[in-house]
Specification:
This protein is of the alpha/beta class. The protein folds into two domains: 242 residues, Rossmann fold; 157 residues, Rossmann fold, CATH 3.40.50.10490. The protein is built from 15 helices and eleven strands. It has a six-stranded mixed sheet with strand order 1-2-11-10-8-9, with helices on both faces. The protein has a five-stranded parallel sheet with strand order 4-3-5-6-7, with helices on both faces. Strand 3, helix 3 and strand 4 form a beta-alpha-beta unit. The radius of gyration is 23 Å and the shape is globular.
Length: 438
């Protein structure tokens, strides 16, 4: 019970989830089995709805796993940008770039253009980036689902002026590609004015759920990633979820909601022990926060990274309030990294525990120690393992967390796809800028 040794993904690769240390009897304040099974039963309605939505295409994110027809249409765009660019700048905020940014963790060795993500609007930082780049060898991907995102449009207009002044007005269109939903909007009008190619963003895909679409995949396709493998990795996760009432996304959602409702554990720490997954935690943070934080409810997502955060937050996790659940992610690729040569320190006996080890061995040992320490302290802990950070593994994780979030929203009785509270801030921003008060 509670352990999933996963499906074959990408040539037999396995993805595993262990939720055993989230239950009463394993950890203090853990989830009662009866509550867990009640939530699994409640999730069946959501799974039935997802099955219908996949069949009728009414929820587009469920049509993307395993789908490849659109990849051929994207290839000429990707090849043009790859030939043109030494640097590719992705202009977008939130879901318009966090997915692609997370996917860079699986970038192929010696990948093509360097990807830049100036996602936080900062005038000085943006100026410094442009001064560093060679306009003749730089491309820009402008992404806004609505076509009216103020931050992205501001950056795009500045970039167009920069390219016009340093190259020529006629050169702008060759260096920029836009992605936005069909119909009339400011980004499409801007693109038409400067002869910029404009690709369609599916209106049925919210930004935070768009990682498996061209929004998340095109930047990595320019770098040479096999993006079909990303979707192929997502497919068995989806298929299992629709068939198995205790599939990993269902089990994960039941555990998180159960711990919150019955144990007051309202925060979820995502803690990978791999720097390549750091950006995954930022993507996950937005996914959970915007999808579940509604009507006075929600699970607070906290991003962390091992080993660095065990030196900055572990004291709080162990000895502070018992209000957090932990998801530890470890990689089993067997790569120990550069060796530690103790001869360089005169074979100091105080360091003999490092003999014959590499940096990766230290990380693995610290992950194990953190896991066992959290469990011993009674903190609910889920352990996700994967053999390596590959495009297929990333696709599996993306699909897992998206489904888990959708199912958790159902259990909480909220809509995971809207974000009504943030619209007020957007309206006020435009108002203040018009009035000269920004």
């Amino acid at each position: 019970m509670g352990v999933w040794v996963g499906m074959g993904i990408g040539g037999g690769m396995e993805f595993g989830q262990d939720i055993g240390h989230c239950f009463a009897g394993k950890v203090e304040g853990g989830l009662a089995r009866g509550v867990y099974h009640t939530l699994l039963a409640e999730a069946e309605v959501c799974i039935s709805r997802l099955t219908v939505q996949r069949q009728d295409g009414s929820l587009p994110l469920l049509s993307l796993p395993g789908f490849s027809d659109d990849i051929a249409r994207l290839r000429p765009v990707a090849e043009r940008l790859a030939d043109l660019c030494d640097d590719l700048v992705i202009l977008g905020t939130g879901g318009s770039n966090l997915g692609a940014k997370a996917l860079t963790g699986a970038s192929p060795a010696g990948a093509g253009p360097v990807l830049h993500f100036p996602d936080n609007l900062d005038g000085g930082e943006f100026r410094d980036m442009l001064e560093f780049l060679n306009p003749a060898r730089t491309g820009f991907l402008v992404i806004s689902k609505s076509g009216s995102t103020a931050e992205t449009l501001s950056q795009a207009i500045v970039v167009i002026g920069w390219l016009r002044d340093r190259l020529s007005p006629g050169a702008v269109g060759g260096h920029v590609v836009a992605i936005t939903e069909p119909g009339d909007n400011p980004l499409r009008r801007l693109a038409a004015r400067w002869n910029i190619e404009c690709l369609d963003h599916d209106p049925g895909l919210g930004g935070r759920f768009s990682v498996l679409s061209l929004v998340g995949l095109l930047p990595l396709m320019v770098q040479g990633m096999d993006i079909a493998a990303v979707r192929d990795g997502a497919l068995p996760v989806l298929e299992s979820c629709l068939k198995d009432p205790e599939a990993p996304p269902v089990a994960g959602a039941a555990v998180m909601v159960g711990l919150m409702q019955s144990g007051g554990i309202g925060a979820h720490v995502l803690l990978p022990y791999a720097s390549r997954l750091k950006n995954l935690t930022l993507w996950h943070r937005q996914l959970v926060a915007e999808s579940l934080g509604k009507d006075g409810m929600g699970i607070t997502p906290l991003d962390a990274l091992g080993p660095v955060d065990q030196h900055s937050q572990l004291q709080l996790w162990l000895d502070g309030p018992a209000d957090k659940m932990f998801t530890l992610i470890t990689i089993e690729d067997g790569y120990s990294g550069p060796p530690i040569d103790l001869a360089l320190c005169g074979d100091d006996p105080a360091l003999d525990y490092l003999s014959g080890r590499g940096i990766g061995d230290v990380v693995a040992a610290e992950a194990r120690a953190t896991r066992e320490t959290l469990i011993a302290k009674g903190r609910p802990l889920r352990h996700i393992t994967l053999p390596a950070v590959t495009p297929a593994a990333m696709g599996a994780l993306f699909m897992h967390f998206m489904l888990e979030t959708i199912i958790a929203a159902h259990l909480l009785g909220i809509d995971p796809f809207d974000q009504p509270a943030v619209e007020t801030g957007k309206r006020l921003t435009r108002h203040y800028l018009r009035d000269g008060r920004g």
